[in-house]
Amino acid sequence: MSTTTKDAPVLAPRPSGGVVQSVKDSLVVAKRNLIRMARIPEMVIFGLIQPIMFVVLFTYVFGGSISIGGSTDPQLYKEFLMAGIFAQTVTFATAGAGAGIADDMHKGLIDRFRSLPMARGAVLTGRTLADLVQTTLTLVVLAGVALLVGWRTHENLGKVIGGFLLLLLLGYAFSWIGALIGLSVRTPEAATSGGLIWLFPLTFISNAFVPVNNMPTFLQHIAEWNPFSATVAGARELFGNTMPGVPKSVTGAWPMEHPVLASVLWSILIIVVFRTLAVRKYRSATA
Amino acid sequence: MPGAIHAEGLVKTFGDVRALDGVDLDVPEGTVLGLLGPNGAGKTTAVRVLTTLLRPDSGTATVAGIDVLRKPNEVRRSIGLSGQFAAVDEYLTGRENLQMVGQLYQMSARDAKARAGVLLDRFNLADAADRTAKTYSGGMRRRLDLAAALVVSPPVMFMDEPTTGLDPRNRQQLWDVIEDLVAGGTTLLLTTQYLEEADRLANDICVIDHGKVIARGTSDELKARTGGERVEVVVHRPDEIERARSVLTSLGKGEVTVVRLSRKLTAPVSGGAKLLAEIIRDLDAQGVEIDDIALRRPTLDDVFLSLTGHAAEADANEEKEETR
Asked: Are strands B32-36 and B187-192 parallel, antiparallel or unpaired?
C-alpha cells in the first residue's frame, strides 16, 4: 500500500464547550462568509443599488410633493426620509442571510457542519455576524450618498453614531429572521423572495416614508406599533431629524413616545425569538 | 463484542414513508460495509442517523462504542462524513476549506493550517490548493470533500455514494484512496448504487430496499445465493415475451425475471453453451424473434435484481426527487 497512510493519526481535540467555543466557532464561520463576500463583490454592489436608487428617487421625485408638518420644502423631506431609507436597507440583510443559508443547505454544507463537533448555533451566528459587517459597509456608503444629496444631522457625533447603532441592531435582528427563512425553504431563490416580499408592507406601513397622520386610523395603529417604525423614529431622533410639525405619535403608542428604548427592546426581542427558533430548526435541518 | 458501527432496530418515518423500517447493522472494526440499494431505499437516512444528523423514531446505535443518541457531540469527534454532494465551499480555496473544517474540529489555527497542507499533498491537490474550489473539476471537488472528512483521522468513516457522478478514471482514483484508508485501519460504511464498487471495496454487503435489510453477506455469498449461470434474452416484440417465458421456464431451473420495458428475460440455467443452443432452437420453433441472447455469470447486479425485483440503477432518477 501507499506510504501516504503512514502519517500519525490526528485526533480531534476535546471541545472546550461553552461560550468560548461558541464565540470561536462563530468567528471561524463569520470569516468564511466574509471571504465569500469579498470574492462575490457583485452581491454587495447589487445590495447597494436599490437603496441608492431609493434615496435619489424619493428625494427628487417625491421630495417636493410630500407634506411634512404642513410644508413641502424638499429639504425637510430629505431629512425626514433618510432614517427611513437607512432602516429599510438594513432590513434587506434578511434576504442575504436567508439566501446564503439556503444555499449552504442545498450544497450539503450544513450537513458537513452538523457532523462536526462545533457549537450548535455557530453556523448561524457566523452568518449573521458577516451580514452585520456587510450592512455596516452598506450604511457607510449610503450615508455618503445621503450627505451628497443634502441630508444633514443636527445632533452631536455620539448621538448620530448611536442612531447608526440602532439601525445596525435592527439589521442584525432581521438577519436572524432571514436565517430561519433560509433553513425553512428548499432553494436560495425561494429564500431571496421569501426574505423580501413581506419587507415591503412592513417597511411601507410605517413612519419611514411619510408621516402616519394621513393614514386610515387602523393603519396608524399598525404603523406605530410596527417594530420597524420604532427604529426609524429612534434614528430620526438621534440624528436630530425630527420635524417640528410632525407629532411624535398620532395614536399615543408607547413605542413612538420612547422610540430609542422601544427600538432596542424590539430588536432584542426579535433576536431572542428568532435565534431560538432558527437554532432549533438548524439542529434538525434536512437538506 | 459490537462492531465499530452497530445499530439495532432503527426506524425512521417521514410522513407515511418508512424510510428505515427496523434496520440492524454491525460493522466490525477495520472492515468495510457496503450498503447497497436503489435511491429511496433508506441508505442515506441510515447514514444520517449514524452520523447524528437525524434522530431515529426508535432503535439504538453506537459508533466507535459511543451512543449516537445520548452523546452526539462525542460521536462527531470520532467520525468523518463524506456526503452525497461534494460539500465544499466553492468560493473558498481548497486550503481555506480544509483549514475551516480543522478549526471546527477544534484544532488551533496553526494545527489546522499544517494539517490542510498534509492533506492537500496527499490528495494531489497541492497545485490547486490556493485556487477557489469553483475552478475544480468534479473529481477534484470529491477529493477535497474526502480530505475534509479526514481532517482528523477518524476511526470511523461514512461515505454516502462517494463516486456518484464521477467519470471512470476519477472513480478509479477515489477507490485507490479509499483502499489506502481502509488499509490504515479505518472502519468504513459506504453506500452505493454501483455494485461494482461494493464488490471491489466492501468486505460485507448489506442490501437494503424500502427501509429493510433484505440480504447480507460477502459478495461471494450473495452471488452464490443467486445461483450459477443465467441466460438473458431480449425479444424483438413485446407480444413475444410470454412465449419466450414459457421456453425459458421449461429449459431453465428457476423463476424467469422479465423487464417489460426493455423486453428482457432472465433465467437461471445450468448446461452452458449446449443449453444456449437448445434455447435458441426452441425460441425459433415458437416463432420468437430475438434481438440478443447471452449466457452470463452472476454479478452483484444480478444479486440485486433477484433480491429486489428491480435493477439497481433503474428508476433512479424518478426516485431521486422523493428522497430529497
From this structure: parallel
